[in-house]
Specification:
By secondary structure, this protein is of the alpha+beta class. It has 5 helices and 9 strands; from the N terminus they run H-E-H-H-E-E-H-E-H-E-E-E-E-E.
Length: 193
């Protein structure tokens, strides 16, 4: 497996996401990843610490450049809890849970993140602003409504399918709803009663 290529592909996918949904220190990005799928195997069968390390470095490079927070989703054996930094836990008011992700219970990516993030903790759930799902790990439960798909230039990272999502606030209202603020020319002919 070409680890340099994997690192480049994950950076490119995140750059595609950020071109649609700019993220800053006010935002949280959830990462779902099957290193088995990246290696061309079935999810949960061939976790790779080397692939996890390459992906983590690519993701961290983009995070360091833009300042957003990260949450790495664990597998179903840890109820899809998320690895975050203590600062992220506090900043977003997340509920901490206790477990140590390992490749066999949590997944190789979450296990690597737990050992390499600054003051790593485990959060029960998050409401993220955007997501990258590498290998169809089902990260939708951790996104704010409304999720909007983002189409990356490349549909894969390694051998795994990659899905990107951004979120936006809900559009509320009916036929009279306005979604963009415009200069008013004078009193409205129709006012709310």
């Amino acid at each position: 497996m070409d680890l340099v290529r994997i690192r480049r592909e994950v950076r490119e996918a995140l750059e595609d996401l950020l071109s649609v949904k700019p993220l800053s220190s006010r935002h949280l990005l959830v990462v779902g990843c099957s290193t088995s799928e990246v290696a061309g195997r079935r999810i949960g069968t061939s976790g790779s610490r080397d692939i996890a390390a390459a992906l983590f470095e690519g993701i961290r490079e983009i995070r360091d450049k833009h300042g957003f927070h990260l949450a790495f989703q664990c597998c179903e054996h840890l109820n899809r809890a998320l690895v975050v930094e203590a600062e992220t836990l506090e900043r977003f008011g997340l509920t901490e849970v206790t477990a140590v992700p390992v490749p066999e219970a949590g997944g190789a990516m979450a296990a690597h993140a737990f050992r390499h993030l600054r003051d790593a903790r485990l959060a029960e759930h998050v409401r993220a602003d955007a997501a990258i799902d590498i290998g169809e790990t089902l990260i939708g439960m951790h996104l704010k409504p409304v999720a909007v798909p983002v189409r990356p230039r490349s549909k894969t990272v390694g051998e795994a399918r990659v899905t990107l999502a951004a979120t936006r606030p809900k559009l509320i209202g009916g036929a009279r709803a306005v979604y963009e603020l415009k200069q008013e020319a004078g009193p409205s002919a129709r006012e709310c009663r």
